[in-house]
């Protein structure tokens, strides 16, 4: 039976030709993705689903997709796909990480000019026959400072364009090395400095727990008076209510938004303001970019469906069918240990190392290393996959080291991941017992044994009487149910760690309150 792909969003028709040429049947139904029920009714007939951003692939949709093997996103963000549910069902999710970068960077620059010269309001006024020459006084771009939050593919292109416009560029990105910043012609700074110096701020990060509301009321208040903000990345990076208040007070002189916390955004308190420019998530919408991403996604999907080749998958490590059963639990362990490092790191990671002790050192450790680096990077980058993780780490100036030793330890196999940050060094070790389940067995130098749970809290504190009672009491008062509680310390009265599995994600307010408990040095919510 021929492979069948459904194209449920408005992709370039060029994709259909590629599928046909590769012997894959393609149904082009570009508005189907907006109709959740119709999509659920037909999805069971397809091996592949090619989408942009309108189709929401939920766990419910996936539950009806018995035949589905692959979801191809013609674009970057896969936040409209429940990747965890797809992974659980063995469905590969792939994207096209670079095809629309230039186009989106150009949109950010276009929005910056629109803001600086009030072009939309001036256009409306002129076309209404008013000729209000004195009403629209703009600001010059040259000589101004552009603050780029998130300097990956798109942020780097924006930096190059801004330098060409004779702007000064400062960038905040925990994964940007000073050398890389220098080669881009930008100055690497911390967020506070960026806020204090930027005349224009442009956002180019994925939406993650760390970046949600990165422009919060507090951070907006730290920005220069008269700052102008551009968001072409993801809704949710800017606190929209706080932005309204800052625009009302005049602290923020203007904002240009391509993305919104709820999309489609058909109403918003931000609408109707002269100093706000809005576009309906058009960042990637050029003929050139759409042609590129459609061709690329069709090639990648056809390659997988006809030859089993995987490229740009966000949820699939490269392991052969024979290696899979032996390697899978260690790959899972590596990914989770990496995710711990990424989440507890308090500063940019400069070096990442992974040490294999015992039997695991004889395995195909490259796949585990890739999974571990991917787990760490995925905290910061939404399109990283195990195949690209090491390349992306190096590209961001992170040194990666792998050490395999056939030495004896307390465990048959022990994996330790270690990160050197600009502030400190952190390490976490784990193993897989005979039940096949990965466990943490050491945090830093402190032994502590815990299985992984979807939501956990990691705390480091001074080993003093009364701490555990206060800790558990605080969680209880916040309605947070403890599933398991693992403790360790280096010596009586020394440094202690707690690793607590909880039922559901930790509320940020609870984590903040934990940090205020006497003796607590660090409290971090972990998600796996
Ligand atoms: N508006 C659109 O139509 C459109 C089009 C394409 C991409 N996008 C979005 O633009 C964003 C950037 O895309 P990209 O291809 O440049 O991604 P990228 O992964 O190449 O770059 C993202 C950068 O953000 C940095 N980052 C992560 N967490 C951070 C944090 N807490 N603080 C500061 N920096 C952080 C990463 O280190 C990385 O360098 C994505 O969210 C993507 O979905 C939007
Ligand atoms: O497909 C689109 O129009 C938006 C794409 C963009 O948000 C992306 O993440 O690539």
Automatic annotation (TrEMBL):
GO terms of biological process kind: L-serine biosynthetic process
Domain of life: Bacteria
Record's catalysed reaction(s): (2R)-3-phosphoglycerate + NAD(+) = 3-phosphooxypyruvate + NADH + H(+); (R)-2-hydroxyglutarate + NAD(+) = 2-oxoglutarate + NADH + H(+)
Limits of the ACT domain: 456-528
EC number: 1.1.1.95
Keyword tags: Amino-acid biosynthesis, NAD, Oxidoreductase, Serine biosynthesis
Pathway the protein acts in: Amino-acid biosynthesis; L-serine biosynthesis; L-serine from 3-phospho-D-glycerate: step 1/3
InterPro entries in UniProt: ACT-like_dom_sf (IPR045865), ACT_dom (IPR002912), ASB_dom_sf (IPR029009), D-isomer_2_OHA_DH_cat_dom (IPR006139), D-isomer_DH_CS (IPR029753), D-isomer_DH_CS1 (IPR029752), D-isomer_DH_NAD-bd (IPR006140), NAD(P)-bd_dom_sf (IPR036291)
Gene Ontology molecular function, alphabetical: NAD binding; phosphoglycerate dehydrogenase activity
Function noted in UniProt: Catalyzes the reversible oxidation of 3-phospho-D-glycerate to 3-phosphonooxypyruvate, the first step of the phosphorylated L-serine biosynthesis pathway. Also catalyzes the reversible oxidation of 2-hydroxyglutarate to 2-oxoglutarate.
Protein family membership: Belongs to the D-isomer specific 2-hydroxyacid dehydrogenase family.
Annotated protein name in UniProt: D-3-phosphoglycerate dehydrogenase
Organism name: Methylocystis heyeri
């Amino acid at each position: 039976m021929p492979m069948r792909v459904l194209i449920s969003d408005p992709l370039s028709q060029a994709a259909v030709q590629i599928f046909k040429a590769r012997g894959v049947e393609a149904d082009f139904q570009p508005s189907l993705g907006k109709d959740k029920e119709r999509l659920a009714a037909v999805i069971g007939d397809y091996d592949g689903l090619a989408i942009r951003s309108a189709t929401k692939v939920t766990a419910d949709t996936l539950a009806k997709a018995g035949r589905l093997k692959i979801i191809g996103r013609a674009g970057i963000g896969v936040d409209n796909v429940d990747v965890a549910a797809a992974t659980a069902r063995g469905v590969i999710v792939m994207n096209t990480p670079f095809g629309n970068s230039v186009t989106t960077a150009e949109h950010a620059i276009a929005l910056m000019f629109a803001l600086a010269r009030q072009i939309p309001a001036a256009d409306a006024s002129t076309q209404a026959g008013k000729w209000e020459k004195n009403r629209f006084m703009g600001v010059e771009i040259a000589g101004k400072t552009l603050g780029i939050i998130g300097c990956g593919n798109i942020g780097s292109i924006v930096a190059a364009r801004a330098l060409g416009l004779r702007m000064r560029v400062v960038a905040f990105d925990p994964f940007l090395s000073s050398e890389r910043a220098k080669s881009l012609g930008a100055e690497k700074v911390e967020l506070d400095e960026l806020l204090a110096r930027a005349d224009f701020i442009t956002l180019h990060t994925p939406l993650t727990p760390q970046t949600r509301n990165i422009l919060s009321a507090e951070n907006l208040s730290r920005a220069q008076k008269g700052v102008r903000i551009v968001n072409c990345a993801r809704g949710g990076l800017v606190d929209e209510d706080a932005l309204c208040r800052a625009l009302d007070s005049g602290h923020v002189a203007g904002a240009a938004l391509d993305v919104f916390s709820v999309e489609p955004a058909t109403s918003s308190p931000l609408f109707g303001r002269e100093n706000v420019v809005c576009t309906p998530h058009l960042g990637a919408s050029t003929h050139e970019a759409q042609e590129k991403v459609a061709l690329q996604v069709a090639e990648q999907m056809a390659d997988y469906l006809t030859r089993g080749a995987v490229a740009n998958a966000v949820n699939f490590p490269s392991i052969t069918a024979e290696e899979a059963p032996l390697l899978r639990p260690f790959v899972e362990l590596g990914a989770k240990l990496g995710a711990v490092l990424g989440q507890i790191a308090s500063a940019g990671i400069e070096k990442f190392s992974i040490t294999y002790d015992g039997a695991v050192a004889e395995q195909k450790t490259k796949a585990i290393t890739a999974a571990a680096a991917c787990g760490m990077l995925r905290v910061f980058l939404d399109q990283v996959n195990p195949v690209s993780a090491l390349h992306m780490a190096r590209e961001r100036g992170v040194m990666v080291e792998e050490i395999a030793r056939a030495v004896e330890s307390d465990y048959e196999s022990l994996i330790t991941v270690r990160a050197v940050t600009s502030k400190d060094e952190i390490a976490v070790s784990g193993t897989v017992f005979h039940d096949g389940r990965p466990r943490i067995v050491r945090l830093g130098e402190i032994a502590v044994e815990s299985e992984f749970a979807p939501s956990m809290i990691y705390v480091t504190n001074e080993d003093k009487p009364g701490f555990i009672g206060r800790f558990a009491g605080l969680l209880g008062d916040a309605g947070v149910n403890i599933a398991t509680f693992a403790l360790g310390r280096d010596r009586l009265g020394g440094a202690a760690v707690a690793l607590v599995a909880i039922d559901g994600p930790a509320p940020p307010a609870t984590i903040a309150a934990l940090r205020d408990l006497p003796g607590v040095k660090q409290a971090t919510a972990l998600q796996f």
